[in-house]
Structures are given as C-alpha cells and as structure tokens.
Amino acid sequence: MKIFLDTANLESIKKFNDMGLLDGITTNPSLMYKEGGDPKAAMAEITSIIKGDVSLEVVSTDSSGMIEEGRHLREYGENVVVKVPMTPDGLKACKSLSSQGIPVNVTLIFSANQALLAAKSGAKYVSPFIGRLDDAGQDGMHLIQEIKEIFSHYDFRTQILVASVRHPLHVVDAAKIGADVVTLPPLVLDKMLLHPLTKIGLENFLADWEKLKTENPDINA
Ligand code: G3P
What is this structure's pTM? Predict the structure, then answer.
C-alpha cells in the first residue's frame, strides 16, 4: 500500500520524505490555507521535493475552468495529479484531462456509485473521505470495502486513495482491505511510528549498556 502525506506543510513533508516513507502528497485548498503564505511557492517546492504523485486541487467549478487550471497546475511538474471535485463538471474535466494524458484524482467521494462513475471517467485515483463519513454516523471503512469489491470485478486502472484518515487503525483496516493508497495527516503518521514498548525497550537496552560499561571500564578502549 502506498503512503501519501495529506498536507502542504513543508517541514512535515521533508521530515517523512527523509525517512523514505512518502510515495506522494495530497493537498487541498483547506490544507493550503492552513499553512498560509504563497500557495504557488508551496506547490513548486512540494513538487520538487517529492518524486511521486502530488495532487493539486482546482478551484474552478465549471469544467472548462477546471481543465484550464489543470493544465496550468501540470506546469509545476510531471508528477502533478489534478484533483477535481466529484461533480458533473468535475467528471467532464476528468474525462478531458485523462484523455490528454494528465492524471486526475477525483475527490470528495462519499458513495460507491460516485467512485464507480469517477473510475469510468478515467480517474487515476478516487478519494473516498472515510473520516467525514464516520463523523456523520456512517461506516467509512465499509465504503472502502464496497469500492474494492466493485473495482475487482472490472478492469479499471483507477486506484483507491483512502482520504480523511483520522487514526492509525484506519490505516491497518485500509491495508487489510487492500486499498491502493492511504493519505495521512502528519499526526497520524507520527502515531504510527511510535509504540510505548519500543520506547521502554530502547531505554532498557541503553541503561543495560551503561551498566555493562561501568562493570567493564575497558570496553570502549
Ligand atoms: O484528503 C482529504 C482530507 O484532507 C480531508 O480530511 O480530516 O478534513 O476530513 P479531513
């Protein structure tokens, strides 16, 4: 399963990229707003740091605007995936951009039918928002299962990109289902790295090594 980071925060992107963990990045206008500053400079930097796919989202609402924006966004790099909303105009833009060889991520997917339609429009990725479904009292992970099952019956090349991930258990469940990608807020990836027993175990190893050195002063000689 590929891991994308769901952020426009350059510090986090560099931190996890240096660990070799990142297969790509997803951004959206809210994430850009959260970081402040010049979004164009951020997009240029992110696309240069990350070799894998970087989703940059359009803000036009009509298909021709989305297509034009998508072409401009691709100028940031060959790794740019144009993110369009799951609307009739979004699918029209998806069809057009995909036919021109520009990969598209269809976002704001909340039902299996929406994922099916986005795949038929040629999307490279569909982004179901599982956390927001959970928040609304539905089972977000069930949607991932449904999409996975539906896609397995056909020869779509569309990848399931699990978005709106809120905690590490979401990641385990998505991996067990066989989702292609999870996109993670930095905080979730931080939590996945840590376990209290790892911390305690390391402290014990280091303390025992200090004891060993005390008992054998020549050890470092
Ligand atoms: O990738 C989509 C994601 O950013 C939405 O997450 O937490 O705002 O529902 P959230």
Answer: 0.95
Q: Say how many C-beta atoms besides its own lie within 10 A of residue 203's C-beta.
A: 10
Domain spans, the chain: 2-187
Q: Is the pLDDT of residue 221 over 80?
A: no
| 18 three-state secondary structure | helix
Q: Do residues 7 and 21 lie in contact, with contact meaning Cβ atoms separated by under 8 Å?
A: no
Closest ligand 1 atom, residue 135 Cα: 9
Give me the pLDDT at residue 133, please.
Answer: 98
What pairing do the DSSP bridges indicate for beta strands 53-57 and 181-184? unpaired
Q: Give catalytic status of residue 83 as yes or no.
A: yes
Q: Which amino acid is at 200?
A: I
Domain 2-187 is of which CATH architecture?
Alpha-Beta Barrel (3.20)
DSSP string, 52-111: SEEEEE----SHHHHHHHHHHHGGG-TTEEEEEESSHHHHHHHHHHHHTT--EEEEEE-S
Tell me the per-residue pLDDT of 143-172, one tens digit each, with 9 for 90 and over: 999 999 999 999 999 999 999 999 999 999
Nearest CA to ligand 1 atom 9: 164
Give the pLDDT confidence of 24-78 residue by residue, as tens digits: 999 999 999 999 999 999 999 999 999 999 999 999 999 999 999 999 999 999 9
Q: Assess contact for 181 and 159: CB atoms under 8 A.
A: yes
- Which atom of ligand 1 is found nearest the CA of 166? 7
